[in-house]
């Protein structure tokens, strides 16, 4: 169950990062509120996950899910452009997250 909590925490990290961008520097109140709510839920689920997972495992996986998810949102929603080298390192990040899961 802890891994599910950790995955949900990572999804909420992607959510709040996305709504933070949409808030335009916290000038759009509705998105600013959603950002804070997303942060709260992300931290709550991370806290639940760390009850049974080592912090040294949970935190990098959480940030990795958030990073890769934010990249996906950036590319598909905000039309961010990535170089081939950036994509290569994103793939390494995904492999690292999977490796941490498999070896823990």
UniProtKB/TrEMBL annotation:
Species whose genome carries this gene: Weissella bombi
InterPro entries the UniProt entry points to: EmrE-like, Small_drug/metabolite_transptr, Small_multidrug_res
Cellular compartments annotated: Cell membrane
One Gene Ontology term of the molecular function aspect: transmembrane transporter activity
TM annotation in the entry: 27-47, 59-78, 84-103
The family this protein is said to belong to: Belongs to the drug/metabolite transporter (DMT) superfamily. Small multidrug resistance (SMR) (TC 2.A.7.1) family.
SUPFAM superfamilies listed in its UniProt record: Multidrug resistance efflux transporter EmrE (SSF103481)
Keyword NADP among UniProt keywords: no
Pfam families: Multi_Drug_Res
Name of the protein in question: Quaternary ammonium compound-resistance protein SugE
PANTHER family for the chain: GUANIDINIUM EXPORTER, SMR FAMILY PROTON-DEPENDENT DRUG EFFLUX TRANSPORTER SUGE
Keyword Transport applies: yes
Stretch forming the signal peptide: none
Membrane topology: Multi-pass membrane protein
Chief place where the protein resides: membrane
